[in-house]
């Protein structure tokens, strides 16, 4: 088997506060292959966002290990670095809210990360323009975020993330602030963009249909402290390769019923002692 891009080995994490300890993650282990689109579902409050924050390096696990293999900085930057730098994965993080700055235009928002990282070369500017054209935002590049729809703003947020050429995209319920119809088309668009760029993506969602239609694999987490309850490969017979159309695949409802059962079992299970005082 190919070497995975990302490996989580026995990750545990608890929050500590004056009220006591809240165990969030318990012995989480899994691997993600390059190019894989994985969804993570689980009961509310089980530790999904905590898990992404740990993968993103925003918080350190209490025990266990996270290993990123291969890739790293693009060649040019790696060549300029004089120390044998440890592998530094480029991580793109997309959250529920687009976090676009209202005082900057869409173009200025999209190039923000490139500016901050001193990466705004003429080639990259050209790529930004191409992405704006590809995702129907070129005409709106001089508008402020407030003049765009929720779906357009999420597409702009995705472009802002993609221009930094992330090795892996972490998406924490990125569509949940959108209304249902917008959500259907934006999630389908964004998934097609991610697939067409061959990016590795990890999507947290509480929408089971969204997980089945977008991802090639679904990890189900147990209630808190989260463990990996099951790891389900999704294989749909697709008339056309569109996430939206995949909802009509004959296997769709079987996956839905399976996930529904797994999550309902978790919601009805008595909470285990979590260490919370
Ligand atoms: P999810 O994303 O699955 O809804 P989270 O990862 O946000 O869950 O949170 C997991 C658990 O940890 C929840 O019970 C939450 O209340 C608790 N938690 C999250 N952040 C903190 C924090 N900063 N301090 C204390 N407890 C926290
Ligand atoms: Mg969350």
List keywords for this structure.
alpha/beta; 9 strands; 9 helices; six-stranded mixed sheet; binds magnesium ion; globular
Verbal overview:
The structure is a single chain. The protein has 277 residues and is of the alpha/beta class. It has nine helices and nine strands. The chain has a six-stranded mixed beta sheet with strand order 5-6-7-3-8-9, sandwiched between helices. The protein has a three-stranded antiparallel beta sheet with strand order 2-1-4, covered by helices on one side. The protein starts with 5 loop residues before the first strand and ends in a 9-residue tail after the last helix. The C terminus is likely disordered. Magnesium ion (MG) binds next to helix 1.
Helix-strand blueprint:
Blueprint: E1 6-17, E2 20-32, E3 37-41, H1 48-55, E4 63-68, H2 75-80, E5 91-94, H3 106-110, H4 112-116, H5 122-134, H6 150-162, E6 168-172, H7 180-196, E7 200-204, H8 208-214, E8 217-221, E9 228-233, H9 252-268
Parallel strand pairs: 3-7, 3-8, 5-6, 6-7
Antiparallel strand pairs: 1-2, 1-4, 8-9
Helix pairs in contact: 6-7, 8-9
The chain binds adenosine-5'-diphosphate (ADP) and magnesium ion (MG).
The site of adenosine-5'-diphosphate has 13 residues, from β1, β2 and α1.
């Amino acid at each position: 088997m190919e070497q995975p891009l990302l490996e989580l080995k026995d990750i545990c994490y608890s929050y500590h506060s004056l009220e006591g300890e809240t165990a969030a993650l318990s012995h989480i282990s899994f691997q993600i292959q390059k190019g894989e689109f994985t969804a993570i579902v689980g009961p509310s409050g089980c530790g999904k966002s905590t898990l992404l924050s740990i993968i993103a390096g925003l918080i350190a696990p209490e025990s266990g290990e996270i290993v990123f293999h291969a890739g790293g900085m693009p060649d040019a930057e790696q060549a300029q670095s004089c120390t044998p730098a440890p592998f530094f994965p480029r991580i793109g993080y997309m959250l529920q809210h687009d976090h676009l700055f209202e005082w900057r235009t869409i173009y200025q928002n999209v190039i923000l990360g490139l500016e901050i990282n001193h990466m705004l070369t003429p080639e990259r500017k050209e790529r930004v323009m191409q992405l704006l054209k590809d995702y129907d935002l070129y005409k709106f590049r001089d508008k402020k975020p407030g003049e765009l729809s929720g779906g357009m703003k999420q597409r702009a947020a995705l472009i802002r993330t993609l221009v930094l050429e992330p090795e892996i995209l972490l998406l924490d319920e990125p569509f949940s602030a959108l209304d249902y119809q917008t959500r259907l088309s934006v999630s389908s668009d964004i998934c097609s963009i991610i697939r067409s760029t061959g990016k590795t993506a990890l999507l947290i969602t509480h929408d089971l249909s969204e997980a089945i239609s977008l991802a090639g694999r679904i990890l189900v987490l147990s209630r808190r402290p989260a463990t990996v309850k099951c790891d389900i490969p999704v294989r749909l017979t697709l008339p056309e390769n569109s996430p939206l159309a995949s909802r009509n695949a004959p296997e769709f409802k079987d996956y839905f019923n399976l996930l529904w059962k797994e999550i309902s079992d978790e919601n009805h299970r008595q909470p285990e002692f979590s260490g919370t005082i």
